[in-house]
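can u do me a favor
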């Protein structure tokens, strides 16, 4: 584990107010906030989307299995906690490839019966490795919700993220879902901040247009309201503050026919 190079999971932890990061991650996070003061807000908005998405998938879509790719460091209201608070029997498999995330996940991402939580140390670029590992915990004859929050942005165009997403969903049955969110290239301040981050990061981040991100849902049936700015996807009526006016990330949920 190289603690001299910033890592996206640890920088994200800093932006969310966590404690599981190093000085280099904190320095990068502080620089990001100077260039783009709304960065911490964007991180919180994504966390809020995760909670709303999981509640929808469990309560309205009836999903009882989740494959959460790009888990990041555990914090409050993780996928299994939200899902199992509604349906205790829910099974969740987390996927990440950062050693510090692995250590924390094994210690903190646990479930009480009848629910199950598992963790796979794998890279999103290897969908077959992920699926083979997840098949030990999840039943691929029943619907699975694939969670990909800010992970497609860590794939370059050469990685062909659309093909990776397609491969992940290919082995899952009809009635499975994809929940995805990612940063957009529509905010000049965010573009500058991410360019600065990419100069020193272990894993670079690729901002894309809303149309490019929407294309990741090709062949799936989008759930209303479609692919929209993150705070606009079925927002809570009593949200405590106002989101930024400029779009910095979009999200959506779609069902496999």
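np, heres the sequence
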């Amino acid at each position: 584990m190289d603690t001299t190079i910033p890592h996206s999971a640890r920088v994200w932890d800093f932006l969310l107010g966590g404690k599981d990061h190093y000085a280099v991650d904190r320095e990068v996070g502080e620089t990001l906030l100077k260039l783009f003061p709304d960065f911490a807000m964007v991180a919180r908005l994504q966390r809020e989307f995760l909670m709303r998405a999981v509640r929808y998938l469990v309560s309205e879509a009836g999903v009882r299995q989740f494959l959460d790719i790009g888990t990041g460091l555990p914090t409050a209201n993780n996928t299994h906690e939200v899902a199992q608070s509604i349906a205790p029997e829910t099974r969740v498999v987390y996927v990440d490839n950062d050693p510090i995330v692995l250590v924390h996940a094994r210690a903190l991402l646990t479930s009480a019966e009848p629910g199950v939580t598992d963790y796979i140390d794998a890279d999103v670029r290897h969908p077959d490795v992920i699926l083979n590992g997840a098949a030990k915990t999840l039943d691929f004859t029943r619907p699975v919700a694939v969670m990909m929050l800010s992970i497609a942005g860590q794939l370059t165009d050469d990685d062909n993220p659309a093909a990776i997403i397609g491969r992940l969903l290919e082995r899952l049955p009809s009635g499975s879902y994809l929940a995805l969110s990612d940063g957009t290239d529509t905010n000049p301040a965010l573009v500058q901040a991410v360019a600065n981050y990419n100069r020193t990061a272990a894993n670079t981040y690729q901002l894309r247009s809303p149309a490019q991100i929407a294309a990741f849902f090709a062949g799936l049936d989008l759930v209303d309201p479609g692919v929209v700015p993150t705070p606009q996807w079925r927002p809570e009526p009593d949200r405590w503050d106002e989101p930024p006016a400029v779009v910095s990330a979009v999200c959506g949920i779609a069902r496999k026919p």
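The longest helix spans residues 39-59. hope that helps!!
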